[in-house]
């Protein structure tokens, strides 16, 4: 019986989800409703009126004292009663959120909520297998290397690749944003409230030390339960190295147990991967049904700058690296990795996509388990090419808006170096880059509140940069594997 390849199934799922989501957005994203006191309003509220659309939600109500109160929720600029999310509004006015949830939500947003919940089930299944897959895979791969010399060599090559490609991505972003100059093209500056954006009081040194500190878990079992991927990776590698050091039957038994566990986890992962087209369908439908085109217009040139820079890195720089250093066809390698890349785009989570990435690398791209099991978990934790590029472009865009000029070259060098180091500390989850961006803004003297300017389009751009993160991890796997195969085995 004819059966489409997995990557085509996922692509069709994305297309179908996009079409349904966009149809809902254009036909059912607007709702106007008036609610009287007898219609399940919160205590003390006389009446309410809600106008809901994909661009903004306006909630007006009259309280017990006869005061008329108006709240607006929209990622686009607004006045002092404007909020960028319902979470931010709930902290100030829980009644307004309750009124909206009970009476005002448009059909498109109602469907979007359910699509998000159903897509979340697929992500939960991937997250379920991530930690045991990483542990068994790392143990199998490291013990298979046979000595600490082999693991040290692979670690050096992996880190060197990550640093080089991340810096290349940042330079690409800086060149594009200096050419396009999106912040100097007349966009209005959004009004931002300090409590509505991601803040961090930690310095870059604190963040990097925190990453180093996380490599030494106080409780390895707690690290597995959280999960803290850096702690899990560090402890598993240490455990494997000491297993090699002990040697003998102990090493043999642990190796056999790890291999058996890895085989079971791969079987479970492959079963979950078959659901990827359905999961991707719901995830992409959730985004397209709730996001309207209006939020992109005021930030059009910024979106163009980020998209062009990510495109250059993903379609030119990384394929050239595959061709020159891994000696592989970029097109064939991208085809092998396409299920993971499409899932990364839909989920905006490199950690969530990790089981699928590991499966694609070994089952479809033919890379050895010992390479994939070491390079990919490390990459999903510290290698963020797309995030580093995005942060550099975003900071320069914000600087152009704020200062009405380009940053000086010395300031751009600070941005580049800080973005490189901050990307190491970014978690592989949606919107993690926003927290790290606060560090870069502080480094060049920009107000943290300006970060709110880009929140309107962050979700879609987060999907794009996550795909680049995963693509870079996969390319690194191919490069390291090719170099390892040219290296004489160490016994």
Description:
The protein has a five-stranded mixed sheet with strand order 1-2-3-4-5. The protein is mainly alpha-helical and 491 residues long. The chain is 70% helix and 6% strand. It starts with 5 loop residues before the first helix and ends in a 5-residue tail after the last helix. Strand 3 (57-63) and strand 4 (68-73) form a beta hairpin. The protein has helices at residues 6-28, 86-92, 94-104, 107-145, 148-180, 204-214, 220-225, 229-246, 248-273, 276-290, 294-297, 300-325, 330-347, 350-364, 369-382, 385-403, 409-424, 432-443, 458-486; strands spanning 31-36, 45-52, 57-63, 68-73, 82-83.
The backbone outline, from C-alpha atoms, is: globular
Task: List unreliable stretches of 5+ residues.
Answer: 193-201
Overall mean pLDDT: 83
**What is the number of beta strands?**
5
Tally of DSSP helical segments? 19
Features:
mainly alpha, 491 residues, five-stranded mixed beta sheet, globular
How are the SSEs placed, and which strands pair?
Elements: H1 6-28, E1 31-36, E2 45-52, E3 57-63, E4 68-73, E5 82-83, H2 86-92, H3 94-104, H4 107-145, H5 148-180, H6 204-214, H7 220-225, H8 229-246, H9 248-273, H10 276-290, H11 294-297, H12 300-325, H13 330-347, H14 350-364, H15 369-382, H16 385-403, H17 409-424, H18 432-443, H19 458-486
Parallel strand pairs: 4-5
Antiparallel strand pairs: 1-2, 2-3, 3-4
Helix pairs in contact: 1-4, 1-10, 1-13, 2-3, 4-8, 4-9, 4-10, 4-14, 4-15, 5-12, 5-15, 5-16, 5-17, 5-19, 6-17, 8-9, 10-13, 12-16, 12-19, 13-14, 13-19, 14-15, 14-19, 15-19, 16-17, 16-18, 16-19, 17-18
